Amino acid sequence: MSIWKLDYVGKKPKLKNPILIEGLPGIGNVGKVAVDFLIDELKAKKIMNITSHTFPHSVFVNEDNLVELPVIELFHVKIKNQDILFLAGDVQPIDEVSSYEFCEELLELLASYNTKELITLGGIGLNDIPKTPKVYCTGNSKQMIKKFKTKSVNDKLYGVVGPIVGVSGLLLGLASKKKINAISFLAETYGHPMYLGIKGAREILKVLDANLSLKIKLDRLDSEIKSIEKEILKRTDELSNVSKTTALKKLKGKLGQDVSYIG
């Protein structure tokens, strides 16, 4: 019996070779900010809720003063006959086993839709706030990197960061088993746990727009910074002791060294 519950919202969609873009919480919440913005800007439709007992044992209190269980959501939009899926949420699995199980479950789903490409997003934690965040990329195939790399993206990531921890990293590593090409875009951000890497997210959005012709209006991101910051910082603070800190301590304990990137 699977520990993951995948529930479609409404009718199961018919998708053709969709591309997945993942943006779950991590350093600076760079990936989360980027994906949440894309979902809103492109008016993507939620097609699935993913829940599990392996999520943090907590609930959120929403704006209506009601509680919500932690959930990861899958959204869909079609742009120029290309189906695009967005993986979003306020949490990600907090231990190694559940992270592997979640990624394998997700990749099974993607394989059923004949997905050939996936993109993960994240942040690289620095000791200081970067004035103009650099974007790096890595992946599971040189072909994928060549296809998606732009002039503004640095593909020389070796030695820049430590291990890529969590869903953002494992999807890259496991995707090849399903014959899915995968790439990750990582933007520099301040490594403080309460810092919101909106500038880094903006740089990643530029790269995605150039590759996928999303035609997004990034000036809207600036105007929405306050509302985004308020909500994400609230959720990050609520979960910091349960998820991110726990995962980081486990990793540091095993590796015995500093970790510059997680999730």
How would you describe this structure to a colleague?
The chain is α/β, with parallel strands linked by helices. The chain has a single domain, classed as 3-Layer(aba) Sandwich (Rossmann fold), CATH 3.40.50. It is 35% helix and 24% strand. The strands form two sheets. A nine-stranded mixed beta sheet has the order 1-3-6-7-2-8-11-9-10, with helices on both faces. Strands 4-5 form a two-stranded antiparallel sheet. Helix 1 crosses helix 5 and helix 2 crosses helix 4. The chain is globular. About 2% of the residues have low confidence.
The top level CATH class name: Alpha Beta
CATH superfamily: PAC-like subunit
Q: Report the helical percentage.
A: 25-40%
The overall strand count is 11
Terminal-residue CA separation: 27 Å
CATH topology, anyone? Rossmann fold
How many distinct helices? Answer: 8
Named CATH architecture: 3-Layer(aba) Sandwich
Radius of gyration: 17 Å
What is the residue-averaged pLDDT? 87
Q: Assign the structural class, choosing from mainly alpha, mainly beta, alpha/beta, alpha+beta, or little secondary structure.
A: alpha/beta
The total tally of domains equals: 1
Topology (SSEs and partners):
Elements: E1 4-8, E2 19-22, H1 30-41, E3 45-52, E4 60-61, E5 67-68, E6 72-79, E7 82-89, H2 96-112, E8 117-126, E9 135-139, H3 142-148, E10 153-154, H4 167-175, E11 181-190, H5 198-212, H6 219-223, H7 225-239, H8 244-255
Helix pairs in contact: 1-5, 2-4
